[in-house]
Amino acid sequence: MRAILWDLGRTLADWNPDYLYRRLIPDAEERRDFLMSVCTMDWHEAHDRGISMAANREALIRQHPDRAALIEAWDTGWNAMFSGYMPGMDGVIETLHARGVPQYALSNMPAEKWADVLALYPAFGLFETAVISGQEGLVKPDPAIYALTAARIGTPPPETLFIDDRLDNIEAGARAGFAVHHFTGAPALKAELDRLGLLPLTA
Predict the structure, then answer these.
(1) Which residue from 5, 27, 17 is spatially nearest to 83, judged by alpha carbons?
(2) Among 18, 108, 111, 153, which lies 20 to 30 A Cα-Cα from 82?
(3) C-beta separation of 179 from 159 below 8 A
(4) Cα(149)–Cα(105) distance, rounded to whole angstroms?
């Protein structure tokens, strides 16, 4: 194995809308209802496909005018949805970079928020290529975004380990010819990277 293709949210970056909304909606049941019936992940996927947050929230606010401020907070409070790295993942990018391992990113993410994420995680600037779904108008697990990624990175898919926390994304990556690892936590990933000779287990 020569290179790594990273998913970002919930693989490297600890991203969870609950981090923001627990500040705005203290009641856990009310917050859960809001995130499951108003600002849902299905609604958010439009951002990942390239629809601007301003445009995407218009219809939702018309449906829930009493929650307009909470809906707008998805945009204005975006950075508060992040809480550093996933446990045990801090420093992994830098260590791999120092060992000369090529690293790329393939992330479902709003185009307009990529600069903010780079500011929160400067190590992401070490990626040789970053394919951001909102910039491309394609989202994982669409086969087209894997084909696009394969055309842009500097190593063949069979020599590139794709790491993602979502099983459907991993399965699509495998069908596209990538070596894959389903991320369930830092210990299992580091053991796999050690087995492949990419990263010492103690890193």
Answers:
(1) 17
(2) 153
(3) yes
(4) 9
Amino acid at position 87, single letter: P
Query: Which of 7, 14, 31 is closest to 168 using CA atoms?
Result: 7
SS3 category, 45: helix
The torsion of the CA quartet 50, 154, 126, 134, rounded to 10 degrees, works out to 0
Pairwise CA distance, residues 27 & 45, whole Å: 25
- Judge if pTM exceeds 0.85: yes
